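$ ./design --mode recover --in tokens.txt
reading tokens...
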């Protein structure tokens, strides 16, 4: 891979899932965020990333807000599912 994250990569389904998983894993145990159920934190981060990416690429419109929310739910469930599969595989090797 020649590039780190950029908005083109972040604008893809896989890029948003990866970024969401990385960010949540890094911040979920920080202060007040510990009190938020992880799935809600994942949804919040995914919605933030989807919306910020749309703004940064000049594709944001108010009429697309419901789509951003739906896409965020899809990203969040995929991110959570990917984490569970990875965690399960790691625990089976122990």
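writing sequence...
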């Amino acid at each position: 891979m020649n590039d780190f994250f950029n908005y083109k990569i972040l604008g893809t389904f896989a890029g948003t899932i990866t970024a969401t998983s990385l960010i949540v894993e890094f911040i979920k145990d920080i202060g007040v965020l510990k009190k938020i159920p992880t799935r809600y934190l994942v949804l919040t981060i995914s919605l933030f990333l989807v919306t910020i990416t749309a703004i940064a690429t000049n594709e944001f419109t108010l009429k697309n807000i419901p789509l951003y929310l739906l896409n965020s739910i899809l990203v969040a469930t995929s991110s959570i599912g990917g984490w569970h599969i990875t965690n399960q595989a790691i625990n089976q090797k122990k």
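exit 0
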